């Protein structure tokens, strides 16, 4: 220690005093656009003013017009542009020459606690805290005034040709408006706006000052206040600090600046923030937000390289396995002491109801909301919330599970799937006791016909593509046989092969009935080719030998699409009638259409952006089966598609409705923009009227 002190000896001790007489009045002026060698000490200061709250200062200084560096012509031109040719007391430059300039301040820093002015006298250092540090820069407000004068002169020249007597004041209508109450958010935006800040700054009045030069007696008197006035007497306790406290004051610890993040919803978490959480919290947060997710997608959202076994342990704590996908547990979404926002039902009851919905989806792909509501006895709004977590609504099929079954996960993790299966058995037994039902009761209530109607158009379309793919070899073989003249009459006609039509089993495709035009097409021929039944007998691989039906040809799809674009709504019997008329109009030998069965025709309709409308015909209806199959164009790419879809939904509940019902429903779904012309167009395209009621085309019984 002694050697270190010898290397750094104390040369002199200086007493430091804190002067506070000018602590709230002392400012440091900086002139960044002027070299330090050229001060303004000898320049005449014409005026000075300050806004203390804003720490804004303006100084007006004279310009030496007699200097050889001053351009007199330029100074006169500037004065002319600013004040014009008139001589008034309000002129900026009274001598018709730019003889002064204004300096306006801006704050160098808003925190001056680390800065002070110091003077040294007789071995004593006196420091005074600074109130502000201001940079003085030239102001060019005179250019704004010159620009304003220029616009006034132009306006006067444009209006000088008109006589004052001829000018009449226009009478304008005044609209009185009452402002709405300002919201808190709008008020915050207004306060932070530039116009508001400028207005607040303009409200503070200027305080005019008297300038005293460097060598003025008043300036010398004020400089005496830079020295501490109470040097004798009581000890100044403000600077009596311990060495550690004094060191902390000189070198404050470095603190990280708080990063202000943009304000967002409380439930939104970035992926970077998410990955800073423990693995269990990451999985829980993701499941709470997405509600349903496949395991592969969950692994993709987590940090790369995360152990899948650890993720499986975490996810089983917050989710249940449904159809190979993970659905967040009910008690995670509805914690204790919470309640329903719709009915106020406690969380325990909500969890039981949601568990029942989840269990139903472990048994089947789709559920009906009415059936669920009837069992769990909760409000439809609560049940809808449960279903929206894990399903999507389908027309005439209830609510379908949101994701396809993930069989790959079940194959890769049979132990997890088995454990979840046992867990669901336990949940089922509890639900049966709570809601007093059995699984057999639910199965027995299902109507086979209703289940058959729940086959979606997408499923039928997929099945049609699959049948076409599997039947491609047989189609090519059949086509080559026809070209070689095998198996029946050629394109030129010839003798027809008469066969006896065998009954078709329920599991096979039924050939299209062409009896309505059989008289026009003798011997079972359709336009020179065998009919559907004849072709089936000649080619056992075409629809009746267990092989799937062929896919529709582009010509058939074009015909069906054009037909529905014209008619919009058609029954199956009407489609078949129009199709037979089209066949009869084709020239002899045309082989574009052959072996067309009912199933193929219906598949073609569903592939043409059409859907089947399940009209609830009355029980006493005498309509045939083909007349009760109603198809309608669903999507054409027009904005009017939404109107048609709303109309079809109405006719799925009743086979006949009144116009006012349609008008009201359209207004509810589409808003007030629905006009009378829209309703008229809709009814003209899709409906027929009888006895004050409206029916879909083809559904009106004679």
From TrEMBL:
A Pfam cross-reference name: RPC5
Limits of the DNA-directed RNA polymerase III subunit RPC5 C-terminal domain: 445-702
Region: Disordered, residue numbers: 146-170, 445-551
Compositionally biased intervals (Basic and acidic residues): 146-156, 457-469
Protein name, entry field: DNA-directed RNA polymerase III subunit RPC5 C-terminal domain-containing protein
Organism: Oncorhynchus tshawytscha
GO cellular component terms given for this protein: RNA polymerase III complex
Domain of life: Eukaryota
GO biological process: tRNA transcription by RNA polymerase III
């Amino acid at each position: 220690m002694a050697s270190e002190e010898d290397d750094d000896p104390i040369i002199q001790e200086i007493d430091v005093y804190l002067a506070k007489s000018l602590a709230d009045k002392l400012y440091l002026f900086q002139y960044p656009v002027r070299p330090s060698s050229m001060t303004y000490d000898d320049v005449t200061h014409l005026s000075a003013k300050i806004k203390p709250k804003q720490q804004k200062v303006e100084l007006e200084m004279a310009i030496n017009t007699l200097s050889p560096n001053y351009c007199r012509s330029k100074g006169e031109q500037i004065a002319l542009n600013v004040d014009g040719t008139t001589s008034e007391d309000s002129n900026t430059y009274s001598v018709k020459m730019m003889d002064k300039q204004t300096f306006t301040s801006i704050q160098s820093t808003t925190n001056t606690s680390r800065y002070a002015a110091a003077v040294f006298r007789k071995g004593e250092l006196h420091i005074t805290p600074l109130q502000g540090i201001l940079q003085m820069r030239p102001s060019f407000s005179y250019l704004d005034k010159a620009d304003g004068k220029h616009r006034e002169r132009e306006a006067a020249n444009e209006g000088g040709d008109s006589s004052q007597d001829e000018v009449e004041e226009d009478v304008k209508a005044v609209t009185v408006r009452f402002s709405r109450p300002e919201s808190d958010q709008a008020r915050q935006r207004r306060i932070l706006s530039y116009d508001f800040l400028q207005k607040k700054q303009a409200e503070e009045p200027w305080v005019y000052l008297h300038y005293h030069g460097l060598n003025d007696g008043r300036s010398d008197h004020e400089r005496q206040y830079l020295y501490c006035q109470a040097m004798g007497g009581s000890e100044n306790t403000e600077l009596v600090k311990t060495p550690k406290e004094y060191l902390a004051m000189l070198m404050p610890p470095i603190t990280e600046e708080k990063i202000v993040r943009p304000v967002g919803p409380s439930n939104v978490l970035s992926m970077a923030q998410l990955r800073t959480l423990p693995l269990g919290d990451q999985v829980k947060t993701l499941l709470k937000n997405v509600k349903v997710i496949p395991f592969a997608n969950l692994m993709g959202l987590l940090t790369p390289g995360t152990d899948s076994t650890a993720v499986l342990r975490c996810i089983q704590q917050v989710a249940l396995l449904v159809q190979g996908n993970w659905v967040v547990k009910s008690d995670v979404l509805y914690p204790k002491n919470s309640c329903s926002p719709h009915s106020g039902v406690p969380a325990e009851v909500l969890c039981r109801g949601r568990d029942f919905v989840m269990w139903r989806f472990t048994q089947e792909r789709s559920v009906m909301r009415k059936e669920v509501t009837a069992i769990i006895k909760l409000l439809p709004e609560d049940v809808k919330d449960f279903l929206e977590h894990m399903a999507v609504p389908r027309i005439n099929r209830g609510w379908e599970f949101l994701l396809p079954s993930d069989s790959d996960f079940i194959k890769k993790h049979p132990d997890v799937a088995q454990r979840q299966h046992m867990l669901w058995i336990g949940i089922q037994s509890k639900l049966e006791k709570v809601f007093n039902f059995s699984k057999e009761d639910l199965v027995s209530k299902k109507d086979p016909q209703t289940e058959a109607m729940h086959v979606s158009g997408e499923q039928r379309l997929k099945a049609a593509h699959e049948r076409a793919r599997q039947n491609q070899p047989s189609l090519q073989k059949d086509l080559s046989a026809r070209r070689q003249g095998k198996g029946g009459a050629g394109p030129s006609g010839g003798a027809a092969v008469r066969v006896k039509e065998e009954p078709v089993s329920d599991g096979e495709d039924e050939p299209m009935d062409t009896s309505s035009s059989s008289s026009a097409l003798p011997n079972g021929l359709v336009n020179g080719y065998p009919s559907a039944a004849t072709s089936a007998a000649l080619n056992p691989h075409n629809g009746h030998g267990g092989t799937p039906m062929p896919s529709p040809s582009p010509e058939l799809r074009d015909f069906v699409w054009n037909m529905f674009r014209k008619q919009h709504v058609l029954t199956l019997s009407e489609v078949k009638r129009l199709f037979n008329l089209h066949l009869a109009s084709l020239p002899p030998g045309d082989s574009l259409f052959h072996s067309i069965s009912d199933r193929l025709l219906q598949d073609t309709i569903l592939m043409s952006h059409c859907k089947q409308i399940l009209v609830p015909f009355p029980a006493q209806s005498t309509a045939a089966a083909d007349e009760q199959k109603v198809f309608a164009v669903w999507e054409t790419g027009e904005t009017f598609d939404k109107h048609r879809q709303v109309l079809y939904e109405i006719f799925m509940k009743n086979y006949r409705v009144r116009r006012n019902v349609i008008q009201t429903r359209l207004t509810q779904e589409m808003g007030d923009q629905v006009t009378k012309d829209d309703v008229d167009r809709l009814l003209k395209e899709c409906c027929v009227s009888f006895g004050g009621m409206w029916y879909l085309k083809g559904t009106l019984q004679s």
